[in-house]
Amino acid sequence: MTAAISNISKHQKWYYRRLNIKRIFTSSVGAMIGIGTIAYVSAITGVNFIMPPLGATCFIAFVIPDSAFARPRNIIGGHLVSSMIGIVCSYVFGLHWWTYALGVGVAIAAMQILRILHPPAAANPLLVMLEGGVPLDFLLAPVLIGSGTLSLVAALYNKLVTKHRYFRVVLHYVANISEDAGRDRLFKSR
């Protein structure tokens, strides 16, 4: 078996890596709790807060929480901007084969420009347009409330259960801003 593994290309070695059962279990349970919380809130309020791209968001938020894509700002902002672009495209241009492509392309560009990268959100314009166009309150429910709830659950779960420092990137960013502000004050006083 060792000889067979050594002949495998570098791109296939991931298949033979040791599985981390604890991580698989905790990330799966986290995703179930995240979607379950949204589904429960939907059930008791009678308002749908679930949308399919949130399933892919669970993967990022619970399996790779260190990723920049897993930041709450990126999750919420990416879903909001992409959904808004889908709504605008459907209202302005109608529902044609090319508006699907335009919506996704513009959403991807907007997320990059605004620095709120979240790959699952690129599906939101398609979701909006496949629904035949949706009203603007779609941005509140399910987009804002669904993505916000999932971000909150992911942050709490990753902090309390997996002991993952979910906001370490955010704290680092805030520390750099405060250093820059202090340096700016120092130069202004001269």
Describe this structure as you would to a colleague.
The protein is mainly α and 190 residues long. It has one domain (24-188). The protein is 68% helix and 0% strand. The chain is built from eight helices and no strands. The chain has helices at 2-6, 21-45, 53-63, 72-93, 97-114, 124-130, 140-160, 168-188. The longest helix has 25 residues, at 21-45. The N and C termini lie far apart (69 Å).
Strand-helix topology:
Layout: H1 2-6, H2 21-45, H3 53-63, H4 72-93, H5 97-114, H6 124-130, H7 140-160, H8 168-188
Helix pairs in contact: 2-3, 2-7, 3-7, 4-5, 4-6, 4-7, 5-6
Largest sheet: none
Class computed from helices, strands and strand pairing:
mainly alpha
Give the helix proportion (percent range).
55-70%
Strand content: under 5%
pLDDT below 50 for ≥5 consecutive residues: which ranges?
Answer: none
Distance between the termini: 69 Å
Number of helices: 8
Whole-number radius of gyration?
20 Å
Sum up the overall morphology in one term: globular
* Number of DSSP E strands: 0
- Total number of domains: 1
Spell out the helices and strands N to C: HHHHHHHH
Rounded mean pLDDT score: 86
Record keyword descriptors for this entry.
190 residues, mainly alpha, globular
Compact overview of the structure:
This protein is mainly alpha-helical and 190 residues long.
